[in-house]
């Protein structure tokens, strides 16, 4: 009897197992449809699951294959696919019970338009806690994402996603903890979704050399189509910043920013980031970088940035404010500093869609700045001081620096007044000081040779790659000079003709009857100066030699380094118009 009973039991179990195997396709289909319907209700997207498996070790699990959603599942708009997904936890969670469920997904691809909504109170209503969810912890690995040219299309790939979902009824907040590992960065985000304040913590760490580290906290206001960060405070590479940020994707993505920084340095250095001379952030910018309207097509933006110290190349500005607007593929940027070398500076750059590469417009004004530190920072020129003023208005089209220079048109006025020239003892050079004929290059008691400068400057007309002037002028206590000439902006050369008139000290405005034109020509980094002696029948040899030396000292040659304005002129022009980076010549092509 016992053997017969055992046999009947085994037979019964076998029959039950056989029945389960027969019924599993029907059961799995019902479970699959239930999951698809539940996911559809939760997300508002159609879902399709290609296959489903059930396991019980070490606990109940569901394995899904070929998961599709949205456009990939027969809908429209946004689409998602995943190769495999594994769900572990109490199956009662699918029916609304409390507990934790774990989800592991592999091979995720997302693409399509960014889901938006209607702007206004309804679309921007803040999101509070997720109903029935007390916590959400996610880890994403191998993340790559990019926006399309319209700014409304997203393409992203994720190698794997590990998600833990804690369900609990009546929770006052939902704690979201996420980490993301991309090719170059590792990020972490902590956000508490609550009915009131929603504290946010963000960190960003590079996974390789050359990246930047960011850590910040803020109060987040999260809506269905908008995100705003108030009370934003943090550091970038240890340097503090603060302000507010906003992003709205209801229509075209729109970014707003109001940020404050201690110091920022923009430099043309390549390779490793150099340290900022006065602390703060340092950002390397390629000298060949020309903004393109296509960069600004995907989004609109409005930003206000304030800097205690802003360094542009060698130019140092205190108390600088930057305002930028991006709209319809164009950029309008203004810069203002009330403490620019003891003067004021204003600049405006406008980029619009026109021609090949867009239209670039630049307006710059400098008022009553101190010339000596300004020129020293820009080009290492330390032989000229006074009150500097400038006004530049130019526009150009093109995608390269040469193209911009060839197409540039506009006007420029530059001047330095009420100062001095160091390194040039003009009175001693031309022997006009009674009882003194100082040798060339002799220093005064303080180690410098100086000449009082009343005015130095002129106006330029820019067209066809050249800057032309007909009103160059210089006035000192020793001489006056007038001139004309041109700068070749592409070939980086100059050709000027100056005519100095000597003024005898102590004789009022009487002039010494000697006008010897000086021709200054050649590459602006190393120009040469020669005296034009044509038309002079008789001339004191010493005066001619002195004027020849004067031209060389002003614009190049072997004069005192502190007063070598020739090298300084080239350096100044190079600072204003950076030379494109030289690229190696192409090697022989392989057959």
Automatic annotation (TrEMBL):
One Pfam family in the UniProt entry: AsmA
Domain of life: Bacteria
Disordered: annotated span: 555-591
InterPro entries assigned: AsmA (IPR007844), AsmA-related (IPR052894)
Domain AsmA: 303-471
Positions with biased composition (Gly residues): 555-571
Protein name: AsmA domain-containing protein
Organism whose genome encodes this protein: Methylobacterium iners
